[in-house]
Write a structure and sequence with these properties.
FAD/NAD(P)-binding domain, 31% helix
Length: 526
């Protein structure tokens, strides 16, 4: 079904805010579903699955949708902007700069663009042809890619400045898996989970065997555990500090782990790797009583009297990734936090080096792809203003300050409870426990049924006699769901050159004057 068809308008609306709807459809954190009022009735609307269905129509279309760019209606900007890192934050920044009329250049140290979407996420969670298809649109938009180039090693920021680049967006992500920091962590077959995923995606991973222990209760821990099952492990045990209810991976990944045969052990912290002739032979744990202190900070407390031990051939740990700057920012004024992330203005993302902006995990710490996409958009806004002298970086910025809807006071119509239950994705049995994504996209019938569950609670009617067009609603909306669009249908709102505006106004005023005189005449004749 081509994107030129009935879903084209929906796709245009989605891609106005999200450059990678197909990617998000596979791995999004689903913040929008957390806020969905339908969840007070039964389950939230499957917003992400609906978007994925619409994005899939475009992926399979004969003519892909390329967002309209300002460079097609006016002269493009000739300022050179460099984006360092081609993960979701960097690519999002490039996307929105291209829409604005720039031809940004993306520098990527790996051989192909995509960052952790390509190297750090297993294929059964995010098919790489989906990522590549989304990136192809950026190429059509004029985004340039220089892969195999590591800034700080192959070329410096100063050299890029000398080449004419006026602004930089640094989004290199958290590429380093860190250390386990317990005795024996240097044993053979003990490695960071993110490094293991990279080796699988790169085709260099060694087959696994025997019992494998995965440490970490987040989404990456789930990905690594499920990958280990697919790579030959006879069994996989996943250990984490958190209680089962508080595991960061959430219910969906917990169920997927169970379905794949992963055994979850909650509330344990590792103390030692056991070795045999330099190889991993087992691991010891102690009971974790709490993970955070009263202030909500990471401060685990343990009971040393309660221990556990697991015999295993491999330990893959997922305990938080770190950034490796290398010489990327050498000679600049960019400052860093204790955890290695860059310090920047929380609104503009500008660092102490005026022409360098940062975004994504390298600034916020480890978050989700959708958060990185949002950061890239804000980075594009800042860079657009920065390279055009005289612009403010702070005025009219989307700071995401909002007042949430009080769902306790929502009065729902009786018919809202009669809608069908949330649709469930099908599973392709031929792909179960393979490195291909077994989850099937919703059918058109499922989409229609799911859309019927919407309560239209966010729909508002604008009184055009009272709306001033100030745009504050677009800024306050947490999800960028409100947009002001110029109505090109009425005479006085058309895009008219300044020198011709009085001609248009005059014609409109004359017509309006005639209508007024007619009304006065009609009243006088009564």
């Amino acid at each position: 079904m081509a994107s030129e068809g009935k879903y084209r308008e929906a796709l245009e609306l989605i891609k106005r805010d999200n450059p990678f709807p197909a990617v998000c459809g596979a791995i999004c954190r689903k913040y929008c579903e957390d806020e969905c009022t339908r969840g007070t009735v039964d389950e939230a609307l499957a917003i992400d699955d609906i978007k994925q269905f619409i994005a899939a129509q475009d992926l399979n279309a004969e003519h892909r949708y390329v967002p309209p760019m300002c460079s097609t209606t006016r002269e493009p900007f000739d300022q050179k902007i460099a984006i360092i890192g081609s993960g979701p934050a960097g690519l999002s920044c490039a996307y929105f700069l291209a829409i604005e009329g720039y031809s940004p250049v993306v520098f990527e140290k790996d051989a192909v663009p995509g960052g952790m979407m390509v190297t750090g996420i297993p294929n059964f969670r995010l098919e790489k042809d989906v990522v590549n298809a989304e990136i192809d649109i950026l190429r059509e938009m004029g985004v340039q890619f220089r892969c195999g180039v590591e800034v700080g090693k192959d070329v410096t920021i100063q050299q890029l400045r000398d080449e004419g680049f006026q602004g930089f967006f640094v989004a290199v992500g958290l590429q380093y898996g860190g250390k386990l920091n317990v005795p024996g962590d240097d044993a053979e077959n003990v490695m960071a989970g993110v490094d293991y995923i990279k080796s699988v995606n790169g085709g260099t991973a060694k087959p696994l065997s025997g019992n494998v222990v995965v440490i970490g209760g987040g989404n990456i821990g789930a990905d690594v555990a499920r990958t280990a099952i697919r790579q030959g492990a006879s069994s996989v045990q996943l250990y984490c500090l958190e209680s089962y209810a508080d595991m960061p991976m959430g219910e969906e990944d917990q169920e997927l782990c169970k379905a794949d045969g992963v055994v979850i052990h909650d509330g344990w912290g590792q103390t030692e790797i056991l070795t045999d002739s330099g190889k991993c032979a087992g691991i010891k744990f102690r009971k974790c009583l709490s993970v955070k202190n009263a202030e909500g900070r990471f401060d685990p407390k343990f009971d040393d009297s309660e221990t556990a031990q697991e015999t295993c051939t491999t330990v893959l740990y997922c305990i938080g990734q770190k950034v490796r700057w290398g010489e990327l920012l050498a000679g600049t004024k960019v400052a860093f936090n204790r955890n290695g992330t860059a310090i920047a203005d929380p609104v503009t993302l500008q660092t102490a080096e005026p022409d360098i902006f940062v975004g994504g995990d390298v600034y916020t710490g480890q978050k989700f792809v959708v958060d990185a996409l949002a950061a890239g958009r804000e980075g594009a806004v800042s860079l657009h203003r920065f390279v055009n002298e005289g612009q403010s970086l702070t005025i009219h910025r989307n700071t995401r300050h909002f007042t949430p809807l009080n769902k306790d006071d929502v009065v729902l119509p009786t018919e809202a409870f009669k809608k069908p239950r949330r649709a469930v994705k099908g599973v392709d049995p031929t792909k179960v426990r393979t490195m291909s994504d077994e989850r099937m996209i919703f059918t058109e019938e499922q989409i229609k049924a799911e859309a019927s569950r919407c309560l239209s609670c966010g729909r508002s009617v604008v009184d055009t006699n009272k709306c001033l067009g100030c745009g504050m609603c677009t800024v306050q909306c947490k999800f960028d769901a409100i947009h002001l669009i110029r109505n090109m249908g009425d005479a006085y709102s058309k895009m008219i050159p300044a020198e011709d505006k009085f001609k248009a106004i005059g014609a409109y005023a004359a017509k309006r004057g005639i209508r007024i005189l007619k009304k006065k005449g009609a009243k006088a004749g009564k």
